[in-house]
Structure formats: structure tokens, C-alpha cells
């Protein structure tokens, strides 16, 4: 235990030592420049030198931290004027990275940025930052834990309102609080269990200690297990709810896709078998992100290309969170039991490639209601809640369909909350699953009083798995995986 801690401190020490050698810089506002303002951020022990050299000031005291100064900046060797800009600096550790940070808020042109880059690169021990390097330094200097860093990248990538909320809460520590609380509980139990092992034979240590440990571990075990049974809500919100539109040829699948994307995304035609490939489009519905797929009409066919399209439709549908099945209403007979006919229609469609999609939620759209006599339309409105008659041509019931779909998606995702956050990331799921498995081993072994030392080893492994999520425990490899998703300048 102590050895491991020492190794961690050693890593951190080397990190601090080596990072003091290089001061990094990059555009923090992205490379799509040609904007009113762009920000060049510089971080490291030599960062403030750039402030003095570029502004030709001699004393750092002329700049109070966290205050903006309008300055002319110059090439330090040629004395050429580069730009007039706002400058600010943050004294480490009270900065984003925990190191001294300088920012130049320049005019957002490629030429100004390049001129400054050229000057900065000429300074000794200055170099361009790698992707995610500012955030990595923030993590290594204890300004962020890994879940907060992941929240930050998710916030940068957020496309919809609900994604914004979820990632913002995570960036502010919602998951860190939860996972650290569990980890600290387990570390305490571990310490008590170890004390029991070491001393219970020759000293008076109460047997209650062990019972107490078991009870506490059980509570954490239950909480993590519950957290894992989340139907991937947070992950669906983070990655987008995947929806496939399925149905027989000409049912109106592409017409429905075009309504949802509000543009002619897919070709619509009266020719059955128009759509062949899976057509993917990302949309925002009520703040929820959706990855929507139009697919080939499902039928048995001798055409090898169409058949490939049908196979792709099934493959994609199997990977989805929700299916919209479109049925041409005019294929149903009003005088027979409609629910039975719909069930039969679905089972005929699905057996084409012997699937059942049993575990996937389905919303059934009876399209082309405009073709049905108005008196009869009423009958279709009284079907199951997951069946909705619409017309893609006359737009009848389309608003109702959109609200129903939004409701279904809201149920699949989560209304983000700071106090009860959901899992958002496959990486966390892997380590949490490992944690419950180890805790389960601990509980089994300790209850059967088999091997106390081995049982406690599992408890130790569980604390390590939890620590890997927040980054209390880390490897270079892990950090590479996490921070490589960041862009340069973040
Ligand atoms: N009357 C009527 N026709 C519709 C409606 N929706 C679509 N259609 C027509 O039905 C035909 C087929 O529409 P598509 O959207 O291409 O159908 P699809 O299911 O994508 O067809 P495939 O890609 O060939 O499987 C087109 O001629 C559409 O104009 C509707 O609500 N009412
Ligand atoms: K068609
Ligand atoms: Mg189509």
C-alpha cells in the first residue's frame, strides 16, 4: 500500500519536474480561426516570460494576475509590431492547469496567430502543446480528476441542451463525488479489515469490526450494483439515442426521415426498394441527441444488392436503442382486428432475417392515414399507446408523433441531475463492473470464513478499480487514451 503511494508520488514528482522543463502554448479557441478574437494560451513555469517579452514590459509587477491589460505586442527580436491585444495571466496553482498561465486575446487571424507562434517557438523550452495537454497538466496538478476532465471534453463536444447539462454537472464533479465517496468508504473498510487480520489473534480487537466491515461493504456493493442497472441512460444521452426506421418497401420510411431531419436527406419515390444503404443523420429532438437511420425496405428479394441492404437494416436495428416501424395503413383491413394484423405484420417483417428485436422498444407508425376515409381514421386513433397513425404527406398527427417520440427518448436517456448522476462512459462501466465483481468475491470469501487474507486482497482490488475511474490510480497508457480525444489547446 505504502509502496504504491510512494510510486504515485514519485510519478507526480517526475511529472512536475519534467513539466517545469517545457512551457506549452496553443490556440485555446480552436484552429478554425478568422474570428473577432482568438486566445493563445501558454502554460508552464516560464509562461510569464512571454508576457514580458512580447509586451516589452520589464516587471511582472506591472501585471496583476487575473486582470486584463490592453497591450501592443511585438516580435522580441525584430521589434515588429504584431498585434494589439488583451493580455491576462493566472498565477499557479490558481489557474486552469495549476501552473502559471498567460493568455493573449489576439485578433483571430491565421497571420497574427502564426506570427506569435513563431516568436513563442523561438523561446528556450517553449513548445506547441499536444492534444489535451493543458487538461492533462490540470489533472496531474490536482485541478481536475479524470471524470471531471472527461466531463470537460463532453461539454466541448455537447450538441444538445441535455448533453450540455449532463457534461457540465460531470465537469463540476457530480461523478467524482459519487465515486470518491464509495472509494473512501471501501478504503476505510480495507484499513479496518487489515487491522483485524494483523491484530485479532494476539490483541483484543473486537469481532464486531469484521461484521461492521462486511455490512459497510455490502452497502457500497448494493449502491454500485444499482448504479450499474441504469439501462445506459447517461451513455445514451452522451453518445446519442440510436434509432432505426424499419418497415416494408414503400411504407414511407424515407418520407418520415425527411420530416425528422427537416430536409430531403433520403430519396423518396414510389418505386419499392429505393433506399438500399443505411442513411444516418443526427438530430436534436427536445434537447436530446438522436442518431437516426433510414434503412432499406424489408422484403425477401433475389436482387443481391437489395438483399445486402436488408441485411444492413437488420444489423443496424440490432444495435439501436429504439425502433420506429413504419406500416402503410392501406395494407391493413379495417374490418379485421387491427392489433392482430399489426402483430402479424411485424412478425412477418422480422422473420425475413429471423430477428425478434424483443429487447428493443418499438414505436409503430401507421403511415398514409390521408388515404383512409375520415370516419374510419377514428378507429386507428384508439390503438395501443405505442401505435400512432400519421400522414407524411398531409402532416396529420406529425406533431403528436414528435411529442410521443420525444417522450420515449426522454425515458431512454436521463434528465441530468447533479445529485443523482448516471454513468456516462463505457470506461467507467468497465471499472465499476470490475469493482462489484471484486466486492462480490470479498463478500463470498469472508462470509464462508475461508481465507481472510485473500478476501481482503479482493477488497483492495475493488478500491483500485474505483480509483482508476477518478484517476487516484493511473497509468500513462490510461491517460493517453483519455486525453488523446481532446483537441490541441484544451
Ligand atoms: N398518400 C401518401 N403517400 C405517402 C405518404 N408517405 C409517403 N408516401 C409515398 O409513398 C411512396 C414511398 O415513400 P418512401 O418514403 O420512398 O418509402 P420508403 O419506405 O422509404 O420506401 P423504400 O426506401 O423503397 O423502402 C412515395 O411515393 C411517397 O410519396 C403518406 O403519408 N401518404
Ligand atoms: K420507395
Ligand atoms: Mg426509403
Automatic annotation (TrEMBL):
PROSITE patterns: G_TRME (PS51709). GO terms for biological process: tRNA methylation; tRNA wobble uridine modification. It comes from the Eukaryota. Keywords: GTP-binding, Membrane, Nucleotide-binding, Transmembrane, Transmembrane helix, tRNA processing. InterPro entries: G_TrmE (IPR031168), GTP-bd (IPR006073), GTP-bd_TrmE_N (IPR018948), GTPase_MnmE (IPR004520), MnmE_dom2 (IPR027368), MnmE_helical (IPR025867), P-loop_NTPase (IPR027417), Small_GTP-bd (IPR005225). GO terms for molecular function: GTP binding; GTPase activity. Pfam families: MMR_HSR1 (PF01926), MnmE_helical (PF12631), TrmE_N (PF10396). GO terms for cellular component: mitochondrion. The keyword Ribosomal protein does not apply. Residues 240-410 form the TrmE-type G domain. PANTHER family: TRNA MODIFICATION GTPASE GTPBP3 (PTHR42714), TRNA MODIFICATION GTPASE GTPBP3, MITOCHONDRIAL (PTHR42714:SF2). This is TrmE-type G domain-containing protein. It comes from Rotaria sordida. The lineage of its organism: Eukaryota, Metazoa, Spiralia, Gnathifera, Rotifera.
Amino acid at each position: 500500500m505504502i509502496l504504491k503511494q510512494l510510486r504515485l508520488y514519485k510519478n507526480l514528482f517526475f511529472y512536475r519536474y519534467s513539466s517545469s522543463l517545457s512551457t506549452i502554448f496553443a490556440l485555446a479557441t480552436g484552429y478554425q480561426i478568422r474570428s473577432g478574437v482568438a486566445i493563445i494560451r501558454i502554460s508552464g513555469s516560464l509562461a510569464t516570460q512571454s508576457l514580458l517579452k512580447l509586451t516589452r514590459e520589464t516587471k511582472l509587477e506591472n501585471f496583476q494576475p487575473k486582470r486584463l491589460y490592453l497591450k501592443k505586442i511585438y516580435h522580441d527580436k525584430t521589434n515588429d509590431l504584431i498585434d494589439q491585444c488583451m493580455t491576462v495571466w493566472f498565477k499557479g496553482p490558481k489557474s486552469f492547469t495549476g501552473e502559471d498561465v498567460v493568455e493573449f486575446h489576439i485578433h483571430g487571424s491565421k497571420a497574427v496567430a502564426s506570427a506569435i507562434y513563431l516568436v513563442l517557438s523561438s523561446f528556450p523550452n517553449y513548445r506547441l502543446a499536444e492534444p489535451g495537454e493543458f487538461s492533462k497538466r490540470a489533472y496531474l496538478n490536482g485541478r481536475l480528476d479524470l471524470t471531471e476532465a472527461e466531463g470537460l471534453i463532453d461539454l466541448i463536444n455537447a450538441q444538445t441542451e441535455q448533453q450540455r447539462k449532463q457534461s457540465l454537472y460531470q465537469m463540476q464533479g457530480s461523478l467524482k463525488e459519487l465515486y470518491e465517496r464509495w472509494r473512501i468508504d471501501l478504503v476505510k473498510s480495507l484499513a479496518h479489515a487489515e487491522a483485524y487480520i494483523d491484530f485479532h489473534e494476539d490483541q483484543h480487537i473486537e469481532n464486531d469490526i469484521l461484521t461492521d466491515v462486511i455490512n459497510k461493504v455490502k452497502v457500497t456493493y448494493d449502491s454500485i450494483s444499482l448504479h450499474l442497472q441504469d439501462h445506459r441512460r447517461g451513455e445514451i444521452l452522451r453518445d446519442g439515442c440510436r434509432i432505426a426506421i424499419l418497415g416494408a418497401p414503400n411504407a414511407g420510411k424515407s418520407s418520415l426521415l425527411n420530416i425528422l431531419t427537416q430536409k430531403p436527406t433520403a430519396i423518396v419515390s414510389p418505386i419499392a426498394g429505393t433506399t438500399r444503404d443505411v442513411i444516418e443523420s443526427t438530430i436534436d429532438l427536445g434537447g436530446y441527441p438522436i442518431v437516426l437511420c433510414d434503412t432499406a425496405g424489408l422484403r425477401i428479394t433475389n436482387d443481391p444488392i437489395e438483399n445486402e441492404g436488408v441485411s444492413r437494416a437488420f444489423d443496424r436495428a440490432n444495435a439501436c436503442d429504439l425502433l420506429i416501424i413504419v406500416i402503410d395503413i392501406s395494407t391493413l383491413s379495417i374490418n379485421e382486428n387491427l392489433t392482430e394484423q399489426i402483430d402479424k405484420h411485424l412478425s412477418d417483417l422480422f422473420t425475413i432475417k429471423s430477428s425478434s428485436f424483443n429487447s428493443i422498444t418499438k414505436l409503430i407508425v401507421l403511415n398514409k392515414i390521408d388515404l383512409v376515409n375520415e370516419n374510419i381514421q377514428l378507429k386507428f386513433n384508439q390503438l395501443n399507446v405505442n401505435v400512432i397513425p400519421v400522414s407524411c404527406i398531409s402532416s396529420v398527427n406529425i406533431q403528436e408523433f414528435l411529442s410521443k417520440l420525444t417522450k420515449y427518448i426522454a425515458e431512454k436517456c436521463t434528465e441530468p441531475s447533479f445529485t443523482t448522476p448516471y454513468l456516462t462512459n463505457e470506461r467507467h462501466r468497465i471499472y465499476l463492473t470490475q469493482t462489484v465483481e471484486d466486492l462480490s468475491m470479498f463478500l463470498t470469501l469472508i462470509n464462508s470464513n475461508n481465507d481472510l487474507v485473500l478476501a481482503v486482497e479482493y477488497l483492495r482490488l475493488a478500491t483500485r478499480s474505483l480509483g482508476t475511474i477518478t484517476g487516484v490510480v493511473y497509468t500513462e497508457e490510461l491517460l493517453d487514451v483519455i486525453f488523446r480525444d481532446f483537441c490541441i489547446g484544451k
